[in-house]
């Protein structure tokens, strides 16, 4: 088997996905059967600089090169091959945000990530103008807020794009972006598979008095759908990606996509009545719609699959970050006591302990708001833990309530969709919350009230999803849709492990949510009074 894989590597019968996530950059190389054959990663963290959540340009490239280098080293160690060519490459990253460049290709202001909640005024005005929900993290909201703030860099903008679109541009010279992430920059027309023409004209009319030297369409990437060719790796791009100089230029790249799109791909949830939920630093659920929603909801974003079909997105800024911080505190305690504890074992043990807790979390309350949360209308966050003298304060309940609260805002958004009549056959789960067998899956099923499936490949995440999009571009038959390709050629024999909601867990989560909603005034007071 390894000889066959080695031959495929030599011949370039492979596909590579690289995803820049919130806390980790991961590279996954797959064979012709879509099996991961090598991977590499690099840990990183956003920085809060002058009131902005950001990553620096050097950090971006250091991380991309490190994850690629680690993957290439695994190829060498396992198969004895030096990686010189690849069948196709796809880049993915955190959706949304704001990267504005001048004519020389220089970044005009520090990268503003999806995590920033500084664009409320722009978001509200654009939503009213378009009669279409424009979330704070969308690129056009950041652009318009910069205009409202009269920021000096705005007239100099020559190109506005998201993180993976930037990386793709530097490696290929192509100013393109997959439609799924384009839909997180500006509204798209699903029928035309392009940015919404009327809304673009409305935006240009809105800012016309400012007399900028650009029209919005001129500074935005070209919209591409899954399966289209999106350029080739240049000589300069090959050196940027592979510092060793072994990788050759000329490798085709498919449209770069956002992490929501690669998450849908990695969980085979691009068809109607399917949905997926990615739960890590942030948490978001993607539900492929059968029809339009009846009205605009501030809590619900409308984006698309990588093929351009309409999707309702419930996005929450906060999920496991505060939970991870508590686990780190327990790790510090263990080290202080002279114990050696493997971090993965610690996570697994504490997560499993949560299942021993009371169904309602013991009457305790927590908010893991490290940053603002638009669904509950917070521009800033303050992590907090609250209990009454009567609360059943023990480790199992402590862990359970922190798992519950990681999904509190998501629950509120999903309830809106269900009240709209949206139906889900199953929710596919992926991301760090699901790494410990059954625990995250069981909590998610209780929260949302639908069956949750987790596939064996869920741990590979969006980087694997990106590799699948690259494979689809290479291997699809003429006219073959992305959902058919995934269902018949990737996931035909992998339905995942399905878990039905437990009625007692559901009742316990509902009881917790009553406290969660009632306690939001406590979080508000923390934000107002803890500066």
From TrEMBL:
It comes from Lacrimispora celerecrescens. SUPFAM superfamilies: Actin-like ATPase domain. InterPro entries: ATPase_NBD, FGGY_C, FGGY_Carb_Kinase, FGGY_N. GO terms for biological process: carbohydrate metabolic process. Residues 276-473 form the Carbohydrate kinase FGGY C-terminal domain. Belongs to the FGGY kinase family. The keyword Translocase does not apply. The keyword Ribonucleoprotein does not apply. Pfam families: FGGY_C, FGGY_N. This is ATPase. The lineage of its organism: Bacteria, Bacillati, Bacillota, Clostridia, Lachnospirales. GO terms for molecular function: kinase activity. Residues 15-241 form the Carbohydrate kinase FGGY N-terminal domain. Keywords: Kinase, Transferase.
